[in-house]
Description:
The chain is α/β, with parallel strands linked by helices.
Amino acid sequence: MGQNGTREAKCIKMINALTVDLEDWYHVCGNGGYAIPSKWKEYENRVAKNTQKVLEILESYHVKATFFVLGYIAEKEPEIVKTIAKEGHEIATHGHFHQRIFDLTPEEFEEDLRRSKETLEEIISEPIFGFRAPEWSIRNETPWALGIMKKMGLRYDSSMVPLTRMGERHFPVFPQRMETPFGNIIEFPLTTARCLWERLPYSGGLPLRIAPYCFVANNLLSTNKKNQPGMIYIHPWEFSNDNPKIDLPLRRRLMHYFRINSTQPKIEGLLKHFKFAPVREVLNKMRLW
């Protein structure tokens, strides 16, 4: 992002959403033993150390975020959740056992969501309003998930991706209300960039780490010029260079480790050049809340 682009970004008043998927280094979906919750106690816990680093970075830039917290982590490390809430960040749920929605029945999903929501609400003594599915796993075949969320008192979801392979091309590109049998729920989808007839992810995870900073910043700026907020997402384990290595298939190994050193400088660049807030605050400013 050049000097003119930086000045232009600072002039944009749109507030974007900053989100953190609070999970540990071994929370990988669908990969043998690492996807079995009963084995998680065998692995070294690094979530507290890595989360503290994220909190320190956010504090240094005076930015608040939404933390989508795994219920499993909240049960094991409730003090982390209390600290996050005490520092003024929004607490939302990432489910309990880091299971993709399309791998669950409606009954299994409802039980997993209920357990995570009740665990978090007991810890912070406040209602939980938001949810993000592991691996953005809402698909055409799982429309029932939004209804279950609404029935359980959630007000927004952030699990849809408007891409052919990762989600569905017809999914919303910007935040909007979605109908369910139990009333409307707000969907805040993954922020993507237009590329011919498709869209490209760039706002978190491997795509953020691969893309040049100028590409990320210019596309976020383009979204803001449309009077729409973007959303950036990160994981605490992306701020550590010495996490234990997992034996994963090549594609997932790239997603988990490739260019992990680039996460922090890119995030700090975005925090310097753009305005961010928790999801709930962004939706309120859009008058969707």
